[in-house]
Amino acid sequence: MDIDIIVTWVDMNDPKWQSEFEKYAGDKGNTANGVSETRFRDYGLLRYWFRGVEKFAPWVRKIHFVTSGQKPEWLDVSNPKLHLVDHKDYIPGKFLPTYNSVVIERYLHKIPGLAEHFIYFNDDFYIINHIGSDRFFRNGLPCDIAAFQYNPSWSQWYVRIKNNIRIINQHFDKKEVINADRDKWFDPSYGSKLFWNYLMLPYNKFITLRTPHNAQPYLKATFEEVWQAAGDELTATSVNRFRALNDLTPELFRTWQICKGNFVPYNTYADTKMFPLMVRSKEAVQAIRNQSYNLVCLNDNKRIRNYAEVMSELKEAFETILPEKSSFEL
Fold first, then answer.
1. Which helix (DSSP H) or strand (DSSP E) does residue 123 occupy?
2. How many Cβ atoms are within 10 Å of 100's Cβ, its own excluded?
3. Do 326 and 76 meet the contact criterion of CB atoms below 8 Å apart?
4. Disulfide-capable partner of 164 in 62, 252, 286, 298 (CB 3.0 to 4.6 Å)?
5. Closest of 288, 326, 320, 316 to residue 51, by C-alpha
6. For the residues of 169-206, what is the DSSP string, one character each?
7. Looking at the whole model, is its pTM more than 0.90?
8. For 200-231, what is each residue's pLDDT tens digit?
9. Is 38's pLDDT higher than 50?
10. What is the pLDDT of residues 140-159, one digit of tens each?
11. Cis ω on the peptide bond leading into residue 97 (within 30° of 0)?
12. Residue 77 and residue 118: Cα distance in Å, rounded?
């Protein structure tokens, strides 16, 4: 079974990118969530992302490196395992340029040569320890956790994904879905995260699913199914160059995949950890040095104090576990 990785990246220091960004951002400035500098800035840690994949996940067939026509100077684009992908290669031109990650993500299945089984990474998700392909796929299905999580209607998270849940409830009957795959929805490996599954049993509608903020396995067929069912909505909201309240996010595809029963139960929190660098940078550094998890997310924030120092400490930590160049580096 071929398994590919998709990773998205942008070089916000590129003058051409800056010029276009300012043109379309207009008076929004850099304060709104959708246009914040932290959405786009490069930590300077990308080479360790490639080193981690090569050293700890050598089974990956191909890396599809998605950018808006950019590439790091050190990247060896002749590497046979690397596919450099421009947004224009798979996103309809009428929606470009786009600075909205959910638009960039919803067309991923259109990337030329993409394997049926793929894992989607943001560039702040890192592999820091040996990890097998069975962490992501078993018996041809993605490994995932089907666990509800209540989010109050006033929360930022709920506002951004309520559109997904509306579509899910239009196409799936919650009781039928759970009855068809009860063992998957109540797998013991989920532990305490089963609480809301039991609590929501009498309720007829879907609510938010837990979404571990890290690498996500998908079937390309899932994207095709969702587009067939909700193509009008996905196309209509693709005009949003920046994040908007009517967006449909990648959780739509993941939730659809789970509702179809196309997953193998796996507590993805067991070997995955997100570190908000604003408050947990020291813990992130130690986790990398000690290889405490297989996967970590280094979550940026514009309020990080001593940003340069934090990035330097993270780089030093990566050097302790990934000191050698990968074949992706010139």
1. none
2. 22
3. no
4. 252
5. 326
6. HHH--HHHHHHHTHHHHT-GGGGGGGHHHHHTTT--S-
7. yes
8. 999 999 998 998 888 999 999 999 999 999 99
9. no
10. 999 999 999 887 665 555 66
11. yes
12. 20
